[in-house]
Prior knowledge:
The structure is a single chain. The two termini are about 30 Å apart. It contains five helices and eight strands, in the order E-H-E-E-E-E-E-H-E-H-E-H-H. The protein has a four-stranded parallel β-sheet with strand order 1-2-7-8, with helices on one face. It has a two-stranded antiparallel ribbon with strand order 3-6. The longest helix is centred in the last third of the chain and has 15 residues, at about 115-125. The chain has a single domain (about 1-140), classed as Alpha-Beta Barrel (TIM Barrel), CATH 3.20.20.70. The chain is of the alpha/beta class.
Amino acid sequence: MIVKLSPNVTSIVAVAEKVAEAGADALSMINTVLGMAIDIKKKRPVLGNVLGGLSGPAVKPVAVRVVWQVYQAVKLPIIGMGGITTAEDAIEFFLAGATAVAVGTANFINPRATMDVLKGIENYLHENGINEISELTGLAQKT
Length: 143
């Protein structure tokens, strides 16, 4: 079972550890970050529920941090997501500890975003003499 973790918790590492203990096969992270906007003309929240999920490029630093922290604590495959719009973004996730990545919001802007990211990763691997993407997983934590 792949369990998707939310960053909207006190300790993502504690949650990841409990999920691993419960028998998860892999982790997917992150979901949206809780956010809010206020319409200054109407002087009230923009969203009917007041709070909503922030996604896209704005959440990438949070997502990379979460992958980094969980990779240190739990020995499960990690699917990193949150703000990936380019191959460079995806490579950051791999270097932080992800074993796979997912592209979401970027597909609304560019229907070819996922294919562009994949091609960019392939180019990066070739240009850097890397044979397998797994060689990048957690590499930034080892240097």
